[in-house]
Amino acid sequence: MMPVSDKISKENVAKFAEVFTPPGVVFEMILQDGIRSCIADVDKTIFDPACGHGQFPCAELVWKMFFGLDKLSEDFVLRALKSLYGIDIQPASVEKTKNHLIQTACDAFKFFTGNEFTRTDEARAILDENFICGDSLKIMNEWTDRQQKLF
């Protein structure tokens, strides 16, 4: 997995509550029983409401690939990418997440299979659909308000 810098600006911490989660903490969190069972299913949807630079989605991708080693192929990697979704309030972070996921797919595929991952254009198209810029708290509040009006 491509390392992500732990350098964050004081401005982003104050404005966006941006934090850096060290890789060891990410892996510890995603390998909890309930989350691990979701990751083990290549098609199970996982959503990151504040994806930042993609630490969690990248770790989830690597583990989905690991749990599917017996059937790992480029199609499998694309299926795994289709199951990952995220949003972040900062456009640059969303772009970093997408790039980080593509690099992670390439690196992990090479590590696990010894082959190059060649379907990066298809991967990018999936990620362009699944990772968006927005305020997940605002979107969730608007969704909750609409749901309450239905009942």
In CATH, the topology is named: Rossmann fold
Report the top-level CATH class.
Answer: Alpha Beta
Indicate the low-confidence ranges by residue numbers.
1-7
Major sheet description:
3 strands, parallel
User: How many domain regions?
Assistant: 1
How far apart lie the N and C ends?
A: 45 Å
Quote the average pLDDT. 85
Sheet with the most strands: spatial strand order: 1-2-3
Structural class: mainly alpha
Q: Based on the coordinates given, report the CATH architecture.
A: 3-Layer(aba) Sandwich
Instruction: Indicate the overall shape.
Output: globular
Number of helices: 8
Radius of gyration: 16 Å
Number of β-strand runs: 3
Polypeptide structure, described:
The protein is mainly alpha-helical and 151 residues long. The protein has one domain: Rossmann fold, CATH 3.40.50. Helix content is 62%, strand content 7%. The protein contains eight helices and three strands. It has a three-stranded parallel sheet with strand order 1-2-3. Helix 2 crosses helix 4, helix 4 runs parallel beside helix 6 and helix 5 packs parallel to helix 7. 27% of the residues are buried.
Task: Name the features.
mainly alpha, Rossmann fold, single chain, 62% helix, 151 residues
Describe the structure concisely.
The chain is mainly α. 62% of the residues lie in helices and 7% in strands. α2 (23-30) crosses α4 (55-67), α5 packs parallel to α7 (120-130) and α6 runs antiparallel to α7 (120-130).
Topology at a glance:
Layout: H1 10-16, H2 23-30, H3 33-40, E1 46-48, H4 55-67, H5 74-82, E2 84-88, H6 91-113, H7 120-130, E3 131-133, H8 136-150
